[in-house]
Write a structure and sequence with these properties.
The complex is a heterodimer of chains A (111) and B (114). Chain A is an all-beta fold and 111 residues long. In chain A, strands 2, 4, 5, 9, 10 and 11 form a six-stranded mixed beta sheet that branches. Chain A has a five-stranded antiparallel beta sheet with strand order 1-3-8-7-6, with no helix packed on it. In chain A, a hairpin with a 2-residue loop joins strand 6 and strand 7. With 114 residues, chain B is mainly β. In chain B, 0% of the residues lie in helices and 49% in strands. Chain B contains no helices and eleven strands. In chain B, the strands form two sheets. In chain B, strands 2, 4, 5, 6, 9, 10 and 11 form a seven-stranded mixed beta sheet that branches. Chain B has a four-stranded antiparallel beta sheet with strand order 1-3-8-7, with no helix packed on it. The relative contact order of chain B is 0.33. Classes of the chains: A mainly beta (111), B mainly beta (114). Chains A and B meet through strand 4, strand 5, strand 9 and strand 10 of A and strand 5 and strand 10 of B.
Chain lengths: 111, 114
């Protein structure tokens, strides 16, 4: 069956460290993979999109990698800040009409 | 630039009533998606629409649920004869291009069925 999995356990890190979040998928061949941030009671906010032929994408303190062999994407936040505390959602699109979202990983950055 | 707008933000309905959720996409966006989110769960795709057309409604229950995106006005998600299990947050997203591109989400409508 098709699955998209993110760590269900919250990730707790110290301010200034790098946070690394994982997204694994099975039985999909995504054309695109996206990362979103969601704060409590709010809609998701788009962060980064990476295509299947791209290995890595960066934007300011954010970096996404996409390994189609391992069927995995890693999302990194460098020099993390308490304001980065949120739930981060991984989403993939196979080129069809749907975008499939993972359940998200909650990140807590302690000052 | 106004973002995606949804209203109402909170909606309370008794079992058996109808719920109408509205979504105004960002200016210039002609692609609209509706999602449902339960607490501690991910977003579940419901339906994808372009102006006046339903493109993919495979995530929407066959009964009681319908969606439209008319030529003028907002997109509407309609739930008839609501049941307690319909209680959830419903998010609308819009995109300037087709599927697989970044989506811009509204703040959501929290539906509570009593």
């Amino acid at each position: 069956s098709q699955k998209i999995e993110q760590n269900s356990e919250a990730l707790n890190i110290q301010e200034g460290k790098t946070a690394t979040l994982t997204c694994n998928y099975t039985n999909y061949s995504p054309a695109y993979l996206q990362w979103y941030r969601q704060d409590p009671g709010r809609g998701p906010v788009f962060l980064l999109l990476i295509r299947e032929n791209e290995k890595e994408k960066r934007k300011e303190r954010l970096k996404v990698t996409f390994d189609t062999t391992l069927k995995q994407s890693l999302f990194h936040i460098t020099a993390s800040q308490p304001a980065d505390s949120a739930t981060y959602l991984c989403a993939l699109s196979t080129g069809g009409f749907k975008t499939i979202f993972g359940a998200g990983t909650r990140l807590f950055v302690k000052a | 630039n106004a973002g995606v707008m949804q209203n109402p933000r909170h909606l309370v309905r008794r079992r058996g009533q109808e719920a109408r959720l509205r979504c105004s996409p960002m200016k210039g966006h002609s692609h609209v998606y509706w999602y449902r989110q339960l607490p501690e769960e991910g977003l579940k795709f419901m339906v994808y629409l372009q102006k006046e057309n339903i493109i993919d409604e495979s995530g929407m229950p066959k009964e009681r649920f319908s969606a439209e995106f008319p030529k003028e006005g907002p997109s509407i998600l309609r739930i008839q004869q609501v049941v307690r299990g319909d209680s959830a947050a419903y998010f609308c997203a819009s995109s300037p291009d087709g599927p697989g591109r970044e989506q811009y989400f509204g703040p959501g409508t929290r539906l509570t069925v009593t």
